[in-house]
Amino acid sequence: MSLDHTDTRDTGLNSLREAMVGSPLRHRWWILAGVLGVAALVVWWAVSGTGSDTDAAADAGPLNTGEVVRVDLVQTERLDGTLGRLDGDPVPAGAAGTVTSAAEAGQTVQQGEVLLTVDANPVVLMYGDTPAFRDLGPTEDTIAIAGRSNGTVTAILEAGTGIEQGDILYAVNGQPVVVLYGTVPAYRALRDLATDLEGGDILQLEQALTDLGYNNGATVDGIFTDNTAAMVEDWQEDIGATADGAVDLGEVIFIPGPALVTDVSAAVGDGVNDGRLIATISGITPSEGLDVQALEVNLVALGFDSDGTLVPDGVWDNTTTDAVRAWQTDIGAEADGVVDFGEVWFASGPLRITDQIAGVGSSVNPGAPVLAVSSSDTVVTVGLPSEDQGTLEVGDAVDVTLPGDVVATAVFTEVATIATVSQQGSASFEVTIVLDDPSLADGLDRAPVDVEYVTDTAFGVLAVPVTSLLVLAEGGYAVEVDSGAGRTQLVAVDPGFFADGLVEVDAAGLSVGDRVVIP
């Protein structure tokens, strides 16, 4: 059957092509089937076998064609992002007194430098992921227990009381705070999330509950599962806590072993807040833990291991004491070989001061915020639509277009576990991206950027230009192949993946190098 190229192709075909080309690239072909089905073009001939020959009209002129290729197809998505810095936890005062100095807003504080002083006692920045939570010295004899929640003390043990694993040290608003054995301090809420939460703190929680008799066959593996939650819930019911199967920050205190309450700094009826000293306990074993190791790593990095004998193994020995005294002498602190709670502040890297919450001359209590800070590293944050969650994994490469059309390669490093819901009701997850070359963003802050990332790929597929597809009246799709000498034939195709103006096709009658008609 002959085909009048000038009449049939022009009847609604352009609207079909525009609908297909304008569709979001992150969708697969079948999502566009509805668009294709209602297109104005209707091809009135049937396709059988490898196709049917057609005669071009004499005045149709030369055919506009595209090539059949075998290619890798890549779909990408582009999102709006913001270049800036991540806010960190405010730096608090370690002790009660008067702020006698503080870093200025806009200043970047490095490892070993003083953040602030209270009554002339310095608070020094050190690098590490484990927060300071106790006094650090040769033994566990002085462990400062600070509150991690706000409320009123409703119960507390007396000084001189011995404590073991499972004992309730005190209670806030009727909720008990329990002592469990472990070397990793409690620093986050432990609960069953959509993605499995894991770590050394969970491992010691599971081991402690197992030792206390709350394990009914669960695996002690450091991963917070439904079985872990069941153990926690049974334990909470027994101690009179809210039985929600989650251990909120402040519900447990991890200590290395049996201890003695040597001092009580709060009484029943007192109000407490995050950071207030509650009690001091003494242990019977040498001081050790991740916080000790972080301290030792910093002392070595700062050059306070003159003879090279300090081993950052997390176990306090005489070489640790010697390095601490040398460091304290250098910063003008009392060289007593003990790092009091609040004398150091651990952060993952340099801190950029964004504001002085409490200025010089201000009176502060322990835990009162003094400095607002952000990371010194420049990062990009993007709101990833909830329907695209899972398209990015930590370590995936992305391209970031900076102001001035500078394209920087970057790596996806983190995604929020809690969605943010806009006023319009759409949900998204905040994604953090780090530039491979941060110097490309020098001088930029709070700058809008574009982030492009790969959402899907298809390798080595047979493909044709997406605008060459025809919709058949009886259903399905075809392409019109240039047979030469002014003749064409229709070949039935099954469309699949599409990207970059090409669509994957499955067709017995097509080969690489064939030319297909594009109106």
3D architecture notes:
With 519 residues, the chain is mostly beta strands. The protein is 13% helix and 37% strand. Among the domains are: 5-75 and 457-517, no CATH class; 77-86 and 378-455, Efflux pump adaptor protein, beta barrel domain (Elongation Factor Tu (Ef-tu), domain 3, Beta Barrel). The two termini are 19 Å apart. The strands form seven sheets. The chain has a six-stranded antiparallel barrel with strand order 3-24-28-26-25-29. The protein has a five-stranded mixed β-sheet with strand order 20-8-7-5-22. It has a five-stranded mixed β-sheet with strand order 16-13-12-10-18. Residues 1-52 have low confidence and may be disordered. The longest helix is centred in the middle third of the chain and has 14 residues, at 226-239.
